[in-house]
Amino acid sequence: MAKTQLNVRVDEATAEAARERALQRGVSVNRYIEELVLKDAGEVGQTFVEAAADFMKQYERVFADEFGLDPGPDRLRPAPDQGSAHHREGQPGTT
């Protein structure tokens, strides 16, 4: 992967802390900062996934009612009396 140069300004204490931490880990300051950013980005992604899962859990019944699905413990499936959601009138894939 191609690298891009990024210049940042930090106070001396922060710069020294970065150097010390990188040395303790046996990596360059560049690699240390890169790992911090990747970790932070991963945490944001995980936070999004958790929030999306919570949203779906909270509104599962709304989606089930709207699309004629019977919520199960692991997934939504067509309700027994509704048939497939893909064949309901007004839904995509209907004729």
What does the overall shape look like?
rod-shaped
Rg calculated over all Cα atoms: 25 Å
Low-pLDDT segments: 83-88
In the sheet with the most strands, the strands line up as: 1-2
The helix-strand sequence is HHHEE
Could you list some keywords that capture this structure?
single chain, 95 residues, mainly alpha, two-stranded antiparallel ribbon, 2 strands, 6% strand, rod-shaped
Walk me through the structure.
With 95 residues, the protein is mainly α. It contains 3 helices and 2 strands; from the N terminus they run H-H-H-E-E. The chain is rod-shaped.
Concise structural overview:
With 95 residues, the chain is mainly alpha-helical.
Task: Map the helices and strands.
Layout: H1 12-25, H2 29-58, H3 60-67, E1 69-71, E2 76-78
